[in-house]
Amino acid sequence: MSAFDTSEEGKHDLRRNAAARRSRASRRAGPDAALRLADNLLHRDELADARMISAYWPMREEIDPRPAMEALHARGVGLCLPVVTGPDQPLVFRRWRPGETLVTEAFGTSVPDSMAQEEVPDILLVPLLAFDSEGYRLGYGGGFYDRTLEKLRGDQGALAVGLAFADQYVDLLPRDMHDEKLDLVVTEQDVRTF
């Protein structure tokens, strides 16, 4: 995608601008955005047969998946959270239930402790900085979700659901051959399938 500055400085600027846009989107969406997101997500047919869903514990100004997580748990769906094990490695997932204590890992994310059972999700709820019209996401630059999705889709056809504020949408994002496309994006306003 030659229209984008793909230098490290260009990518850093893109992520910084996307984070600022997400911050504005969070304020505009209002305090009930997480509940509206949960409502939009929980009515999706794609979740009907879910056995194990990976979510994330929100940080910075990511849209909050916790109301959806609690509702999924109440339905009997298993939940797990992603854990970074090292650079250039796919994520692993540890079982989590509402109310269980989390620990803070090196990247500042909250995760189940190392004794929690490892799981393999069939659906991943994925945070992002921005998403585009073709289902690509802008993440934080570590490539963890791309590596993980490539592996899980190859092993079992896992489904990737981006969670975002509607105003995080952009027409087009830069991508390379390793970027994994989302299957759908759920926002507080709507659902987009790709």
Automatic annotation (TrEMBL):
Name of protein: 5-formyltetrahydrofolate cyclo-ligase
Keyword terms: ATP-binding, Ligase, Magnesium, Metal-binding, Nucleotide-binding
Species assigned in the record: Fodinicurvata halophila
Domain of life: Bacteria
Necessary cofactors: Mg(2+)
Annotated region described as Disordered, given as residue ranges: 1-29
Ranges of compositional bias, category Basic residues: 18-27
Leader sequence segment: none
Catalytic reaction(s) noted: (6S)-5-formyl-5,6,7,8-tetrahydrofolate + ATP = (6R)-5,10-methenyltetrahydrofolate + ADP + phosphate
E.C. no: 6.3.3.2
Record-stated family: Belongs to the 5-formyltetrahydrofolate cyclo-ligase family.
GO molecular-function terms, A-Z: 5-formyltetrahydrofolate cyclo-ligase activity
